Structure formats: C-alpha cells, structure tokens
Amino acid sequence: MINRELPAAKTVRIAFLGLWLIISLFPLYWILITSFKTPGAIFSYPLTYWPEEFSLENYVSLFEKSNFATYVVNSLLVSTVAATVATLIAMLSAYVLARFEFRSKAAVLMAFLVTQMIPAFIALGPLYLMMVQLKLVDNRFGLMLIYVAVCIPFSTIMLRGFFANIPDALEEAAMIDGCSRFGALFRVIVPVMKPGIIAAFIFNFVNCWNELFLSVTLMNKDENKTIPTALNGFISSFTIDWGSMSAAAVLTIVPTMVLFAFASRYIVQGLTAGAVKG
Amino acid sequence: MSGQTTTATGRPSTRAGAPSAAPHKSTRRRAFSTRRGLVILAFMLPAIIFVAVFTYYPMLAGSQMAFRNWNLNNLSNTDWVGLGNFQKIFADPNFYVILGNSVLWVVASIIPQFIIGFALALWLRRKFVFRGVYQALIFFPWAISGFLIGILFRWMFNGEFGVINDLLMKAGLIDTAIPWLAEPGTAMTAVIIANTWYGVTFFAIMILAALQSVPDEVYEAAALDGSGKVRTLFSITIPYISTTLALTVLLRVIWIFNFPDIIWAMTGGGPANQTHIITTWMISITQRGDYGQASALGLIVMVILLVFSAFYLMAIREKKGARS
Predict the structure, then answer these.
(1) 8-state DSSP, B40
(2) Residue ranges, CATH 1.10.3720.10, chain A
(3) Closest Cα partner for B117 from A17, A234, A259, A229?
(4) Cα(A169)–Cα(A206) distance, rounded to whole angstroms?
(5) Which family is annotated (chain B) (predicted)?
(6) Most exposed of A7, B66, B134, B155 (fewest Cβ within 10 Å)?
C-alpha cells in the first residue's frame, strides 16, 4: 500500500509539499532580504524581491542606535546557563519518575502538567514583588532562576519518555560492577541518552531565548535587556524602524535556526518518543 | 513559551498505563530500602523546589490578587473585594466581544492547522530523497518566538509596503492595497493566518509520529480487502491514531487560547480593541497596573479551559466506549 503510488497522486503530493515549503520559508526569506535592503529601498514601490544592492546599513545602525550587542550577550548568557541547569535538574527528576514507583509520583507529574495550562500572567505580578524582595529585579541571575523553573516541567516530561525507553538492566549491570546509582546514571545512561538530552537542552534554550513577558517585567535597565525585550521596545515606540527591526529579527532567528538545523532529528524523536509507543 | 510545552502534556497520557514492565519488577525488589527513598528525594528535590518557589508560589499568590483591589498605581489600598473584580469584568461589554474573538481565534486557527498538518504528515510518511532536510526546513517556524512571528507578519501585512498586498495584486486577486491591520475584520484574518503558519508544523510532527505507530500489516490487510485510499484513511488510519489526534487537538486549543504573543506583536489588540483575545486583554490590563482585575481574568481563563477539557475528555471517552 505504502509502496505503490499513482503518478497523479505523486504529482499532488510533490506539489503540496513544494507549496508548503515555499509558504514556510517565504516569511524568513522576506525578512532576510529586507534586512539587506538600503533604508530607501525598503520603503520604495514597487517592491523588489531581490535587493538591487546588498547593504549592511540596517545592521550597522542597529548596533549604533541600540546596545544590541549587549542584548545578544545577555540573551546568550541567560539562555545558556538556564537551559543547562534546567536540563541537568530535569534529567535527575525524569530519571526518578521513569525508574521508581513511589506514592506521590502521580501528584508530582500532575503538578508539572498543570504548570503548562495556566496563563503565565497570573504569576507575573507576584513574581515581580518576590524578585523585588530578593533584590533580583534587573538582575540576570534572577531571570535565570525563573527560566530554570519554567523549563523544568516540560523537559522532565520529555526526558522521562526517553528514560523509559532504555532498559534498566543497563544501569543494574553497572551497579553490580560497583557503580553508585549516580555514577551509573552519568557513566552509563547519559551517553545512551545523548539524543534526548540534546533535544531537551535545545528546547530549553529556544524557550529562554524567545521568552518575552517575564523579561519585560523584570529587566528595566537597558544594559540588562534580552533580545525579545529590546524588540518589544522597538515596536512600542510610535514608528517602527523596519530596517533595524528586520536586521534584529534576522539576528534573533539565526542562532535558534542553526541549533534547530543541527538537531532537528533529535527534536522530532524527542517529541514523538512517547506518542509512537502509545 | 508554552509553545513547545503543550506536547509535554500529551505524552504521559498517550503512554499512560504502558510504562515498561521491566523497571517495575526491579524497583519492587528494593521497595523498602531507605537508600531508595534518599535517591528519590535527592534527585527530585531540585526540580520540586524550583517549580514550587518560582511557579507555584507566584501562581497561587496571583490567584488571591483576583479577590483584592490590587492596583500598582495605588498600593495603599489592597483590600479584599470578594468577587468585585469579576463583577467588573462581567459588566464590561468588551468582555463578551473579546470572549467571542478568543473562540474565533481558536477555531479559525486550529482547523486549517489540523488539515494542512494532517496532509503534510500523510505525505511525509513516504521516504524520499532529502526528506530529512525537508522536515528540518518546514520545522523552522517552530524555532521562532510567537512574538517575532508577529513582527514578521506585521511587516508582511503592512498596508503600504507589505509583500502580501503586492503578491495579491500581482496575482490579480485584488486591485488596491488592503490596509490589513487597520480594519477589524482583516486584522483578525491576518493574525489568524500568522498563527496558522506557525502551528501547522506542530500538528505535522505529532500526526507523523502517530502515523508511524500504525503497523504496516494493517494497511496490507486493507489493501488485500481492496479498500481505496480515502476509505483506508477514514476507516483505518484515523481511528487507529484517534487518541493522539484528540489529545493534540485538546492541547492546541488550550495553548492557542492562552497564546497572546502573535496578536500582541501584530496589532497589540487593535484596531479599536477588535483583535483582543482574553490573554492580550489581560496584558493590557496588567500594563495599566490593575493586577487584581488581570488575575481575575486569568482565573476565568482557567475555569473556561478546565471546563472545556473536562467535557472534551468525557466526549472522547464516550466515543471510545461506544466503539469497543
């Protein structure tokens, strides 16, 4: 069944897949070429689908007019640290949730799931007040703490699916050979789990990299802003400088795209490990 | 942020009751050792502390604000007002318009996402050269934040210099440029198109994964029985993966309902509040400093989603029961 395909069906399939590829990529293409147009060409009519001259003017003015380099550094720092810590913590809890039966297990899982269903805005005000008391407003460490907490539930559930697929004879053998449970986890399981851990890390990183509303609430000083906060500032102002904006958009998208391209097969596996078994 | 996270909720449910049997046996052997309890505690504690302190505590604290007069502009009076914040919301005629918008936003986004995503998944089952590259390329939208997608589409839907007007005119579909984001009707259409573009990928991944769980023998049997493609799709494929489909739809509904980012970046709820959904309205109330009312709105969202989820899950269960 799967292996036979009528020529007509094949044509429809290829046409559909091709069309969707164009639709998927066109907005990215459009923002990319807009970022390379001269500011004059951006607002000229008729529109050009290929810049007449490639100009880096938008990028230059973006870095001149705003502290964009600082925002990039902040975003990289906060996202990398938060994603790393969250992935490590999630790994431990996912391991326990996959390997052990204990009384409060269902409650813990439910508590993790519920975090995904409640509008984040309910927590925004109290989080702000809490960070004021902890003197962590306008502090990158404070933002990292919150991001770690935000990332943990999802990556725990994701990694739990991966752990469940690995036979536990593996670490039992290691433990019989004299490894502690912790040692068995890191020396034997982690190497086998590499795809899952990479996928979880990338998800966490992309989540932190893209997060807007928490950082807008907590980061006020310009030197502390992350990229999304800065972008939000650009569109809040009365007129939008579309040249700099498109340059900023490209610089925001590229790192996550590189990560995604590098690991997309892990991500698909990560998302589907559970569903496939169902 | 919750974009990716929605999948999380689907997984345990789809695999519920089927955790591999092997670990069960071996853990029972050590069931009463203290060491085991210590391992569980030590491994779970960091996660639980983080989630409790930075997620649950603020969430519960936020919920109680819904019953108080909590306005950042005047924090001298944070009295309990009972259901006052809720009364104000229900008395506001905007609320009903915005509720309607939220439903429209969910329904009109999810239907095309589902159909296109399903079609992609069906057609991606067949192996072809560069399939991996193709998948990676169409998954890219998923790596971009909803907020940035809003900015992208805001630029493309620009009334004067937007590429969408230009393409439509080149194709001869319209004669004059449409000021997409300046008119309520077209603005809503525009935000829904942006959301659809973003969400198709997710459906495609989830459905593709589910399709891979359908054993080939089932298709072979269907082919032997001479059932056609459409028949096979509706009598075999869809019933076989109906649990995943149903859960994916549920999670998407919850998520889209709760997802302000695209609208916030494209229109900010305008023109004249006409593209507000509940969560974008909540943001603008938060920005005015009225946390009491915003929290009340948040609780209303929660109740709506819980009631919806409960009814939806019951409906699925009944349908399943009827079939088996």
Answers:
(1) H
(2) 67-274
(3) A17
(4) 34
(5) Belongs to the binding-protein-dependent transport system permease family.
(6) A7
Tell me which H or E stretch contains A233. helix A227-236
- Quote ipTM for the complex: 0.88
Of B163, B215, B198, B191, nearest to B269 (Cα)?
A: B191
**Domains, chain B, with CATH or none:** 92-323 (1.10.3720.10)
List the one residue out of B141, B89, B138 whose CA is nearest residue B298.
Answer: B89
DSSP 8-class letter at A186: I
CATH class of A67-274: mainly alpha
Give the closest-approach CA distance of B236 to chain A in angstroms: 13
User: Max Cα separation, chain B?
Assistant: 77
Q: Is A256 on the interface with B (CB under 8 A)?
A: yes
For testing contact with chain B, the best of A117, A163, A185 (most B CBs within 10 A) = A117
Chain-chain contact of B62 with A167 (C-beta, under 8 angstroms): no
Nearest CB to A261 within list B11, B61, B136:
B136
pTM of the model as a whole: 0.85
* pLDDT tens digits, B71-102: 888 878 888 888 999 999 999 999 999 999 99
Cα dihedral across residues B242, B243, B244, B246: positive or negative: positive
Is the Cβ of A154 closer than 8 Å to some Cβ of chain B?
yes
Q: Which residues pair with B68 in a beta bridge?
A: B80
Specify the amino acid at residue A12.
Answer: V
- Chain B contacts in chain A segment 189-248 (CB below 8 A): 203, 206-207, 209-213, 228, 231-232, 235, 242, 245-246
